[in-house]
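Troubleshooting: if your tokenizer reports a length mismatch, compare against these two reference records.
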Amino acid sequence: MKPSKPQGLSFEKSLEKLEGLVKKLESGELSLEDSVQAFEEGVELSNFCSQKLDEAEKKVEILLTKDGTLKKEPFEA
């Protein structure tokens, strides 16, 4: 199942927007209604980013195939 792109944004733009929403929420300057709306959008963006990261992890695992079998190694940053 492919995640739907929030408002046509890439992973990077979605993450950037999510970070902006977090800053706004942490500032405490939003009204209750705006806070709830920002939270809902943040959850959507977070889910999208999480799904994209899961997809990328699976691709990395596939690329680590050795001798026709999957050699699963943890990603080390």
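Reference record two:
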Amino acid sequence: MADQSKESEKMICEDHNSPVDERSYDLYEATRNSLLRNELDDKNKTILNNIDNAAMDVNLEE
């Protein structure tokens, strides 16, 4: 166990981040990217719906 803690300390000193910090940041990035993709998907759906509605309005006027 002592060897593991020394190795962890060494990693912290070398990288200036603990493995937990790095994993937390990776999760943060993945969540952020997922939320951005979902937000873009929602905006794209709205735009496509608006285009469809406009096309239907044009067809009804003809």
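Descriptive notes for reference record two:
- The chain has a mean pLDDT of 76.
- The chain has one domain: 13-61.
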